[in-house]
Design goal:
Two copies of one chain form a homodimer. With 330 residues, chain A is mainly α. Chain A is 72% helix and 1% strand. Chain A has helices spanning 11-18, 22-39, 47-53, 60-69, 74-98, 110-136, 140-162, 171-196, 202-228, 231-234, 240-243, 249-257, 271-283, 286-304, 312-327, and strands at 103-104, 107-108.
């Protein structure tokens, strides 16, 4: 049904395969640091929570930090990569509490194994550890970047909850929310990397745009995936967003194309109804439209760094990360 | 029943009355900053949440920051006082979500007005704003102090949840948890104030102890209050901690005195049972014992700063804050 981009291996693997020796070593250091933070609190963090936290993920944000810092980013880049992933993990742990989510990445969530209270505190702990890690090294510029991005994340969440069940939300408003909720942390990862590598300020604008664009594309594709399913691939039921009252671009575009969808009442939706609504959104052709918007953003992101002061390897690897964002959904 | 300390006016009022002009002005600046943060996000923060956040509280932590910084603390002290109170507010907002609390300080909680999801994000937002405020001013030493204290807060919460319903918990373990959960942020407020005022490192040990002791006393007295009630004074039902499975010092001490209380099963407790258990704890004399432990800590705190390098006014005002901690419970 949808145009399939040419097959590429999973994002991290592709980038690591293409990289020279420095990148895998540094990504390994980030992983060790994350393990220390997740595992370094003894029995206060349950073993199950611990396992979940160290279970991994795509590590796209640390990858961006390391690539933007370059091969001389050193410990400063490793710290920044670890901190940005800790904030990301903290938000996932809190999201899982709010969504009563039993699984993430195929494993039980902290919420599922430890309950609401411990999961909320675990999120707060990861969050605090991120700032402590940067501040203990005396790096207030990095704290500033990460704290401002965290403010944006929280505001994005608040906007999403405020707009819940409002099917009249505009595409602009949706995109602004995604910029806050997802784009800003990708952008922050790039800028933290640049700062860690001592890169020049001229590249900052290009990198900010790169991060923001691939973050936005990532969110759009994630929202498409919520409509397409299937559950065994995404780990959640089709239409979870709709059941949650979250109006995303696929529904907004579909309502433009299929007037019968306008003003649909999400409050009364049950899983079967959500499934039907997903079918109808898909039938409108909205998914292809949103997917192609996302692909255009990724292409723009790649074009935007073509003229930057990066060396060819860095540019190629950043391009692979951008492709990786798309690949997940192909 | 219990020994009443001599009547003193509410803590903040007493301190402000005794202070010369600089303190009220600076505390007013903290209040304005808090208002900006709570009110500066437009419609994303609901009006009700906004009202709750700017509704106040005792502001003990900012008061400690300002007093430890002294009259020349300037904007750095105001920022630190604001940041420490933001972290405190963030934890209250999250606690209210976890406790399903309808009221705090006689007003509806963010949880009550805006629901779990928005309250969780509001807590995250306040937390992020605290770090952004300090980091944007380039103050990584302050970020470091606050982040480490936040880590301790989260660990204290995790320990409390892990120990839930365990009536065999020792007094030592309870005290250690209180140090993390409450003492560390008071301690942090003192140290941030000292740093903001450019105070010398020699006073750091005394201030750290001062903050830790009054924080611990504060928590002990709070735990006594949960047993004594009454609801119209504390804003919550008697025995809320017990219903929540939280074993505090009054129960630990009472179990030593009244063997019939050992191994009481908190899981099956209903509000009437909690009320009865509170009566039995009170009858054991445990409340007087815990209260006198708290008063001894406050006295020790005051004695510990007697020889410090503070001027007489600062010392007197810190003494009044310490008394204010006790007064709330007299």
């Amino acid at each position: 049904m949808s145009p399939r981009p040419s097959a590429v291996p999973p994002p991290v693997t592709a980038v690591l395969d293409a990289a020279t020796a420095w990148l895998p070593g540094m990504l390994g250091s980030v992983e060790r640091r994350l393990g220390e933070v997740a595992g370094g609190h003894g029995p206060a963090l349950d073993a199950a929570a611990d396992a979940t936290l160290s279970a991994g993920g795509k590590r796209l944000r640390p990858l961006l930090v390391l690539l933007c810092a370059g091969r001389d980013g050193g410990d400063s880049a490793v710290r920044a990569g670890t901190a940005v992933e800790l904030v990301h993990m903290a938000t996932l742990v809190h999201d899982d509490v709010l969504d009563d989510a039993p699984l993430r990445r195929g494993r039980p969530t902290v919420f599922a194994t430890s309950g609401r209270a411990r999961a909320t505190s675990t999120g707060d702990l990861l969050f605090s550890r991120a700032f402590a890690l940067l501040a203990d090294a005396g790096d207030s510029a990095q704290v500033s970047l990460l704290a401002e991005a965290s403010v944006a994340l929280a505001l994005g969440e608040l906007e999403q909850r405020r707009d819940a069940y409002d099917t009249g939300v505009s595409a602009e408003r949706y995109l602004e929310r995604c910029r806050l909720k997802t784009g800003r942390l990708f952008e922050c990862a790039c800028l933290m990397g640049l700062a860690a590598g001592g890169g020049d300020g001229a590249a900052a604008v290009d990198l900010r745009n790169f991060g923001s664009r691939i973050g936005l594309a990532f969110q759009l594709l994630d929202d498409v995936l919520d409509v397409t399913g299937p559950a065994e691939r995404t780990g959640k039921a089709r239409g979870t967003d709709l059941l949650d009252g979250t109006v995303t671009l696929p529904l907004i575009v579909a309502s433009d194309r299929d007037p019968g969808l306008r003003g649909v009442d999400l409050r009364g939706l049950d899983p079967a109804g959500a499934e039907q609504l997903c079918e109808r959104i898909a039938a409108s052709g909205a998914l292809e439209e949103v997917r192609s918007q996302a692909l255009a953003m990724v292409a723009e992101a790649k074009a935007g760094i073509a003229g930057s002061g990066f060396d060819a390897e860095q540019r190629d690897l950043l391009g692979l990360v951008a492709d990786g964002v798309v690949e997940r959904y192909s």
